[in-house]
Design goal:
The protein has six helices and nine strands.
Length: 308
């Protein structure tokens, strides 16, 4: 399926006179296009450092509270030689609302104060928790097997962080004269929404991304490897049931909230899939699943196994 999808993209690229995936060309002020070179070894090196921090980037509070600065520190050290403070062209700043959990904003200016922005937003510095016992290898280290890279966060989303780091390093070296300002916003706290005021939500709330609305914004975060032409949103929901406590030997004296919730959820799911059936174009565009409604966590107030 991935091969077929890539062939379709290549066909579309050819029809539109675009370079194939993997080739990046930025039009500058001159007549010739500037070919940006992908530094494979540099990408692997920075990704190895990022993956090496991911044990402390897991986001599932209160058990796992990430320290995203550990990741952005590596990005800043990589790009520091190209920063304005060091005589370079990159404007780099960290915006922090919770200690140790900053957002990183990198800009390559065009030189024209009135120029619009082209922005890459959403590559996040936190990761989904990983239990090493469930893995065949250590998820907290980068494993390189030929052209295959393995480890927690390779695709979601430290690989994108490493990629954008390399892009801005290349821009800083080549110094193309562009008609747009190029901006990158690496964000904290993407994997959890129970605690707000840390990541992109707070940046938007404070108006720190307002200037990016002058041009296109690309959300660079995908949990897979192939080009992504569509993705899904998420709506969090909660269903609470309150029963009546009694000994399980006398269930007729109790009201079982577990059974209540199972019945209620079954009804909700049946209605959901009736109201939101698979779209007829899903296969055409390569979607691997239709819209879904799934419970992912379950909590109860505690008690003995012999209690309802």
């Amino acid at each position: 399926r991935n091969r077929r999808r890539m062939e379709e993209i290549l066909a579309l690229s050819a029809a539109a006179h675009l370079p194939p995936p993997g080739t990046l060309r930025l039009k500058g002020g001159g007549k010739a296009a500037l070919n940006m070179e992908f530094d494979k070894q540099g990408f692997v090196d920075i990704l190895r450092k990022l993956i090496g921090e991911n044990r402390h980037l897991q986001n599932n509070p209160p058990l796992n509270v990430p320290q995203e600065d550990l990741a952005s520190d590596h990005v800043m050290r990589t790009l520091e030689p190209f920063s304005v403070e060091k005589g370079g062209v990159l404007k780099i700043r960290r915006e922090t609302f919770v200690q140790g959990r900053g957002n990183l904003i990198i800009e390559y200016p065009s030189g024209d104060p009135k120029a619009p922005y082209c922005s890459f937003v959403g590559s996040h510095l936190d990761v989904v928790p990983a239990n090493p016992d469930d893995w065949d290898f250590d998820p907290f280290q980068l494993h390189v097997e030929g052209d295959k890279l393995k480890g927690r966060g390779v695709t979601d989303c430290l690989g994108h962080v490493a990629l954008l780091t390399q892009l801005f390093a290349e821009l800083a070296v080549k110094k193309p004269k562009l008609k747009v300002n190029v901006c990158c916003v690496m964000i904290a706290n993407e994997e959890n929404s129970s605690i707000l005021g840390i990541g992109v939500d707070e940046l938007v709330k404070r108006g720190m991304l307002q200037h990016l609305k002058t041009g296109p914004v690309y959300w660079v975060d995908s949990a897979d490897k192939q080009p992504c032409i569509g993705t899904a949103g998420c709506v969090a929901w909660e269903l609470k049931g309150t029963g009546k406590l009694f000994h399980s030997g006398l269930p007729h004296q109790a009201i079982n909230p577990i059974e209540m919730l199972m019945e209620a959820l079954s009804y909700c799911q049946a209605r959901f899939y009736k109201d939101f059936p698979p779209h007829p174009d899903e296969e055409k565009y390569g979607f691997v699943t239709c819209s879904t409604m799934k419970p992912t966590q379950w909590t109860y107030p505690g008690g003995g196994a012999n209690q309802i």
